[in-house]
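Subgroup meeting minutes
Present: P.N., E.W., G.H.
Scribe: E.W.

1. P.N. recapped why we're keeping a running log of single-chain structure predictions: easier to compare across weeks, and new members can see raw inputs and outputs side by side.
2. G.H. added today's entry (581 aa).
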Amino acid sequence: MKVLRNSLSILTLLGSVLLLASCGQERSGATGWAYNDPSNGGFEKAPFVEQETGPGLVLIEGGTFTMGRVEDDVTYGWDNIPRRVTVSSFYMDETEVTNLYWLEYLHWLQRIYGDSYPEIVNKALPDTLVWREKMEYNEPYVEYYLRHPAYRDYPVVGINWLQANDFCAWRTDRVNEIILIREGLLVHNPEAQVDEEHFTTDAYFGGQYEGEKDADGVVDLRPGSSGYRNVRMEDGILLPRYRLPTEAEWEFAALGLIGNSYQELISDRRTYPWNGHYVRNDNSGGRFYGQLNANFVRGRGDLMGVAGALNDAGDITTPVYSYAPNDYGLYNMAGNVSEWVMDVYRPLSPQDKGEFRPFRGNVFQTKVLNSEGGLEDKYDYVVYDVEGVEYFLKEYQKRSQGRLTDTDQNLIDNLLTYTTQAKEDLKNRLHAEANQRIQDGMDLIASSDSQVAPDLRDGIADYIESTPGDMRMRDVTIAENIDRRNYRESDNIDYGDGDLNSSIYYEDPSFESNENRMYDWGKTTLVNDRARVYKGGSWRDRAYWIIPGTRRFLDERRSTSTIGFRCAMTRVGSPTGFTQE
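Output recorded in log:
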């Protein structure tokens, strides 16, 4: 596929500016003042054609479609009621994220954080124990599936929703970093990056990462400037964030209706990501006629077929380029592994969400500013979810009752003391001190002879929220949104379905902070604000689940051997682009 590169080299950019200066500058249609003219103040209009296609991505042209159930609701869940919505154009990975990509991620984390903060590496490790079953011999996958080269092109599994999001953020920064290296702005020098001194897109835009420069920067036309500056968002060179797709985006991309439409007429309704109502290839006379179109369970006890004629050639997962792609060029949008999406689960989400870019899960944040109005310095320490750490320690202690030695119990007691002190620090807005107490606890674990020390280290690592080098973010407050009509609160996850106003306790303010007021999590349901949607069928599912409209959910901290993910990216500007690719 031909990919248009809109970002220009420094020489080309400089040449464009000089050409405009010599041949009469383009002028503003609003004011008449010339662009790119230092004598006019130096307001720049950067040369730009369209968004560059990031590595691994395919453009998904958006549109309207009927989201939700397209056949019988065999589970009687009534949680995917059909509704017409519109999805904007976006980009999506053509395949699931593979074991090889995840090993590349782990290698980078080890190189950057391994010496000072090994817990950050631990947090990113997939849970390979998801392969274990009480009545099946799956131990070889525990040892080999992630790291053996035979499986490197297979989808990574054992990844929870939070880990998938961390990968997307890491991938954004690595792609934008190599773009700056490609354009001759930064020197390729991985050895110089360690702990908080590594490239992130937000830190670069915020002026808090300089790195080793290969050039002084882009020409700065502002009067009184040093002559050069860093790349800005207005230059259009760096890419938007990689992220998980929304549920609507994933379902729209999986259906691939662009392949069976003419003008605005969709000629055939689809059940699966391919035409027809069969799970086998029904192209009579074709090379693959009669073969299964996806990796799923054909029937009871039949995960791969009969020797000599394997029906899907996949006892577990299969390589990510197996089977034909759908009409968008996406592989395995049915079967192989189910996939995480961004959305928080609610049974009635199809009725509650908006018609345009529907999504449940918004938590509005903004960067933390200092007293002068500038950005606060990026983190140079690990940020923990202190309440989450305390919850883990208390649960671990409760479930280990009667099996803990005096040494084990003493270690847990000391860690709980640290968390109590950290919570008190947070009340006094001593954030650095609070996180240092948890870090002191991690140091205590490292020096302990307790047999449960490895469990405690890994469990606490799961509650890392930010790492050194990340910019400081905070939730927006009601006070700063006094005059807004479109939103007030930061956290809108349970808006209209789980918040106080939507519950039977709407007249009792004492229930305002009760997370279980609607769904009674842990007693009658497993639905709460941490329940995340995953889509599509897996190698262990029957054919019903490979229908794009089906939906299931799982806690964002849990993982299985059947759930993977792929990344998406927002398309900026024209939905179709200005060039033919």
